[in-house]
Design goal:
By secondary structure, this protein is of the alpha/beta class. Helices cover 37% and strands 29% of the residues. The strands form two sheets. Strands 4, 5, 6, 7 and 8 form a five-stranded mixed beta sheet that branches. Helix 4 crosses helix 8 (172-186) and helix 6 (155-162) packs across helix 8. The longest helix is centred in the last third of the chain and has 15 residues, at 172-186. Residues 4-6, 9-10, 24-27, 30, 45-47, 61-63, 66-67 line the site of S-adenosylmethionine (SAM).
């Protein structure tokens, strides 16, 4: 299973290497795109999977930091796997985009009219996620916290895409103020003349095996 398969680029790559893949994603639009690549795919959440011990492996990329119910996701992934099945994934880890998240919080705090800042992300530490996996019946073979500073073209464009869930209730003018003030803060930490804009990504990458 590719859990949170999105438009299915990686699911198709896995299939090309000889595995039978089923994609699952919360977004019907993504599932349509995945199916268009010839991959069996279903709309659903990783916190409510209809599978019982059917998969040899669950793969997931760039999904689990969007899932606040981390225990629910791990329990559902464990339930879907056969005994001895592998869970291989990567997602945002502790401190991911730290400066960007702090800047967003700071700007919200400055403007009570923006409402409460609801952080949509779950960025666990190695220790926290390893404990969760072990508590839900996995043996962790490998887990690493990987700093991956990533160049972007402009922080305003990044905020257009990734702050969408946080700012969808703001008016157009409020959103422009939000972006402008975030940029003013972040230019001190995330911009240099030599490298341009960078986001301080930090990923958790792991392989765990379901205990029998
Ligand atoms: C950044 S995309 C990654 C897509 C794909 N894994 C890739 O690497 O190209 C994140 C995906 O997670 C999906 N997603 C978020 N929360 C989810 C959940 N609870 N259950 C299933 N999919 C979810 C989104 O719909 C989106 O398609």
């Amino acid at each position: 299973m590719d859990a949170g398969c999105g438009e299915g680029t990686l699911a198709a790559e896995i299939a090309r290497r000889g595995a039978e893949v089923i994609g699952v994603d919360m977004s019907a639009e993504m599932i349509e795109q995945c199916q268009a690549k010839g991959i069996e795919a279903h709309v659903g959440s990783v916190t409510n999977l209809p599978y019982d011990e059917v998969f040899d492996a669950v793969f997931s990329n760039a999904v689990l930091h969007w899932v606040k119910d981390a225990r629910g996701a791990v329990q559902n992934i464990a339930k879907s796997l056969k005994c001895g099945g592998r869970f291989v994934c990567e997602f945002g880890g502790k401190g991911n985009a730290y400066h960007v998240v702090s800047a967003m919080q700071e700007v919200f705090a400055k403007h009570p009219g923006f409402g409460v800042f609801e952080n949509p992300w779950y960025f666990p530490s190695v220790e926290e996620y390893k404990s969760l996996l072990e508590a839900e019946g996995f043996r962790v073979e490998y887990i690493e916290h990987i700093p991956r500073p990533t160049p972007i073209d402009d922080i305003s464009n990044w905020l257009d895409i990734f702050a969408n869930g946080i700012t969808s209730h703001l008016t157009k003018t409020q959103f422009e103020i939000f972006k402008h003030e975030c940029k003013e803060i972040l230019i001190k930490t995330n911009y240099s003349k030599d490298e341009g804009w960078m986001v301080d990504y930090k990923r958790l990458r792991l392989k765990a095996v379901k205990k029998c």
